[in-house]
Amino acid sequence: MKKKSSIFFVVAILILIGAFFWLDSGKVVAPGDGGEENVPEDPNADLPQAPEIFDNPNLGKLNPATCSIGGALVYTEKNNFTNQSAILKYKNVDSPARHIIWRIEPEIKASIGPNLFSQLTLPTGQTNIAVVFDEETLAKEYTLRAKVTYGQFIEGDLKIFESECSGQTRVKINF
After folding, report:
1. Could you tell me if residue 30 is inside a domain?
2. Is the residue at 50 inside a domain?
3. pLDDT one-digit tens code per residue, 112-144
């Protein structure tokens, strides 16, 4: 008999806990009622705004893009380098959505940047170059080359082209 009352008691507690969570899950909190949740008035208010590339007055209207790279990155440790004027200079880039396409020789897995113009001054500017190796470096020197994309209207259609950058940037491994 004592065993039956214990089972009944445990089942009753579980039912009460389940009912509490079931009732609580249907709770709706209105904005400004002092509840824990606060629903913003505009659901898009806190979202970052995408660049308005189609409102860009330069889109597809500039001369072909040009660019150059130079300088060197010198690694003194695996994750420590000094930038010796390793700079990408560019001109006539028409949109923040344009790409910077990097090539490294000899080939090795590496993250090279920047890769987009979205955070850079347009249509003309310059930026530092950075390289992070994704695997162990075997060579003592690497060479970076780059090209940039740009747009031009051809017979009313926006066409995307690539422009090879002049120069190169050396990456030296001194460890």
Report:
1. no
2. no
3. 999 999 999 999 999 999 999 999 999 999 999
Provide the residue range defining the domain that includes 145. 56-173
- Please state the three-class secondary structure of the chain as a single string: CHHHHHHHHHHHHHHHHHHHHHHHHCCCCCCCCCCCCCCCCCCCCCCCCCCCHHHCCCCCCCCCCEEEEEEEEEEEECCEEEEEEEEEEEECCCCCCCEEEEEEECCCCEEEECCECCCCCCCCEEEECEEEECCCCCCCEEEEEEEEEEEEEECCEEEEEEEECECCEEEEECC
Residue 132 belongs to a domain: yes
**Within a domain: 94:** yes
pTM for the whole structure: 0.67
